[in-house]
Amino acid sequence: MTISSNELYGQLWAADESPLEIELTRSLRPRSVSDLYEEFARLGVRPEHVVLDAGARDASHAVKLVRRFGCRVVAIDPIPVHIARARKRIEDEGLRDRIDVAEAALESLPFDDDSFDYIWCRDVLNHVELDRGLRECKRVLRPGGSMLIYQTFATEALEPGEAKRLFGAAATRAESMSPSTFEARARSAGLEILRAKQLHGEWRERMLEDGSWDAASDLLALSRLKRREPEFVEQFGRAAVEAERGGLLWGIYQILGKTCPTIYLLERHA
To answer: By C-alpha distance, which of 234, 264, 258 is closest to 246?
Structure first.
């Protein structure tokens, strides 16, 4: 639609504070990042279960899973520096008897068939080859086992130029940013989609409300990066500049609705 200047300034923006502006000051009581563990709890995870943390990074999630559920966890990651950090965290937490670590990619898991009761997979699938990765997850899950996935997908609001630059900067496969493609590949791999929950900007709202994310600081850094981009490229290299920009935009795009974080629960048929 097109709004005329008379309508804009004479009606919509005429009041010091419109009824809509007042409504937008009210919190929607957004859920926090910890809600992901509540979703996992609904699967029925118990101490006797074995969980694969697929893409564990520094094992922070693996530690929380053990602390909360008492389960055993196998933490994998293909990045050597992540493996080193994971082992140090596990050692510091005194959990070597509950968490094992392996350097491995999701597309080629070094485990026997039917090895795990559950899989925890957060912020990983946008980096991997979906067909191979999901087939491997299905293979190592025991019949009736479940997989929790948290992933950010692109929306129609993400312009093609924005998408190309973001995906390149974030080591992201374009196909993995499409929810329809992901769902088709999951079914093809033999995994049933039990539930999908779109979070939109909810977690970011919570972070802004509780002060755990400083969006103003990220926007300020983005503006400085733009104004000094040629200088920074010469000093630090194009890859460093693009990676920094992509990281700063990740949360901004979520709050703007250009991307949509989503929780999926998948199950291997018994």
So the answer is: 258
